[in-house]
Design goal:
Strand content: under 5%
Low-confidence stretches: 210-224
Largest sheet: none
Helix content: 55-70%
Radius of gyration: 17 Å
Shape: globular
């Protein structure tokens, strides 16, 4: 099975540049015939994407993944938080990136875009399968879950309690603020198609490590304040 499409999908989860809409359209064209359900989600993403406003596209990305974030693109953190297991994962991933010549740039080895590129470069099919089932699929599913209204409310309450205010919501329609859930859902559909057992095994986690980590970090910072 060719995995070159993961290399092309990867920019969907990078900080938008001026040509971001072109990249997304290329991804849609690539998936059009083989992944109809993924295309349906990608069309929703494109429908909410303010493709004529680079600053707004960047703001929506930042609000999703960086500042007072909905989730994070670092898969190890999604799955393990600050547990030592994430350190082990990063160490192993760094080795694989290096061996494949995959430049991670300014992001860590477990960043979603970097791992998608790694999937396209790895020659060890067993390792690809392990990554897909044990790391990528469960992390992406967990990230999608972070967009659920109840989790969004809890994170906002935690951010507001700590920072006393929330960063102003971008001036877009309500669903556009969470448009990246559709990008993640599109990716998950591709993974389900390529790795059939993803649909057969219970991947969904019962708790949100990201949400727990957000609350714990704020509590630690509050206790450290004089």
């Amino acid at each position: 099975m060719s995995r070159d499409h993961y290399q092309i999908i990867a920019p969907l989860f990078e900080y938008p540049t001026k040509d971001f809409p072109v990249k997304v359209s290329k991804i849609r064209h690539l998936l059009d015939t083989k992944y109809p359900q993924a295309v349906a989600y990608l069309d929703q993403f494109l429908g909410y994407l303010p493709d004529d406003d680079l600053l707004l596209m960047q703001e929506l990305f930042t609000r999703s993944f960086d500042i007072q974030a909905i989730t994070t693109l670092d898969l190890g953190y999604v799955l393990f938080g600050d547990d030592y297991k994430r350190g082990e994962l990063l160490s192993n991933l760094n080795r694989e990136h290096l061996q494949c010549g995959n430049d991670c740039g300014s992001e860590l080895a477990d960043h979603l875009a970097n791992i998608l590129r790694l999937l396209s470069l790895l020659e060890d099919q067993e390792l690809v399968t392990d990554l897909a089932y044990a790391i990528v699929a469960p992390a992406v599913l967990e990230m999608i879950g972070e967009f659920e209204p109840t989790r969004l409310q809890k994170k906002n309450e935690s951010y507001q309690k700590h920072y006393k205010t929330l960063i102003e919501t971008p001036d877009v329609e309500k669903q556009a603020v969470t448009l990246y859930q559709f990008a993640l859902q599109a990716l998950y559909e591709v993974l389900k198609h390529d790795f059939s057992r993803i649909s057969e095994i219970p991947l969904k986690r019962k708790t949100s490590d990201f949400l727990i980590s957000v609350v714990q970090e704020h509590e630690i910072e509050q206790r450290a304040e004089p």
